[in-house]
Amino acid sequence: MGESVDKLLSLVESLGAVERRVLKYFFENISVGEIKAVEELKHQGVEEPEEVISRLVELGLLEEGVGCYNLSAPLRDYVRRRGVPRELLA
Fold first, then answer.
1. Which of the residues 16, 31, 49, 55 could staple to 41 if both were Cys, CB 3.0 to 4.6 A apart?
2. Pfam families, per this entry (predicted)?
3. Is residue 58 exposed (0-12), middle (13-18) or buried (19+ Cβ within 10 Å)?
4. What is the C-alpha separation between 32 and 9, in angstroms, rounded?
5. 69 Cβ neighbours under 8 A, 6+ residues apart
6. Residues 52-88 pLDDT 10s
């Protein structure tokens, strides 16, 4: 596993419950349109999902594309090779 992936996965351990829930959503969906992501996360009970997503983008766990949000490239590669980290499935 690359150093950047190790760093990103160690960040996951420091996230709060809501941030982990949002990140798990992106591990399961990889890339989602902005509107759809916000609507689905609100439906799942996440208050102010835009703020949580922005925080995860700042941390480098997510990327903001044109009209969409994506799991960061190193984490996408990790999912392809190993699947969703167990810590997020708990």
1. 49
2. PBP2
3. exposed
4. 21
5. 26, 31, 32, 34, 37, 53, 57, 62, 63
6. 999 999 999 999 999 999 999 999 999 899 888 877 6
